[in-house]
Amino acid sequence: MNWVFKSASVGAMVGSLAAAPFYPGQNQLVGIVLDAESAHVSKAPLTSGTSLYSADVVRTDAEGHVQLRVRQTRFQLVGPSEAAFFYGANGAVTELRHGTMVIALNTPSESFELFVSDVRIIPKNERPVLAEVTINTPCDFRIKVVHGNLEATAGKETKTLEKGQLYDVTPEFYVNDSRNPAISPGTSEYHRGHQHGTCALAANSGTQPRFPRRSRFAELLVIAAIGVVTIVALREAVESPDKP
Description:
14-stranded mixed sheet; disordered N terminus
């Protein structure tokens, strides 16, 4: 895939989203699309300047991508991916349902929450933060941490994910949630109406972990950079916290 990313002009964030059933937080403006190709909310195509509302489910096609900002965190979905976005008290809240997501944040006063099945991921105090998450199977995903440190919790286990490392993660429970509009993972309603199952701590396909698998977070190898899916605009975002 070869994408050319252009700087987006941020327009007025106005509009409305009609959807049923209604959950708390719906129709709350949370962000804006900065760049998009073959990306959608429901059946509506996304373009630069499109407003994003809490509980929106964003999808990208096989050759698609979308870059967006929720509060001060920038996200990118690449290839066949799907994620839901919400307004949180301390920053963006997002649920990655499948595919690949890149996250960038360089605002010390703000945080974010990322949920992948039952795993909750938040940034620690260091800024900037730049990371990539790719779901391989419902019970297996990987996190590349390029800048900053993250804190991830799966069940009763919490681990610091360190800068320059690649981790293979096994959730305690996988979640299959297709609701649209979405329901925030931080609410009690989230646990009603979706499918889930148990993920065993077993050897996953691909690169073997450095140590025997006793943890849900297996360190695989040291990395130097995210690679092709990290776009220039996201690197600029982590270097320029005051950039709109």
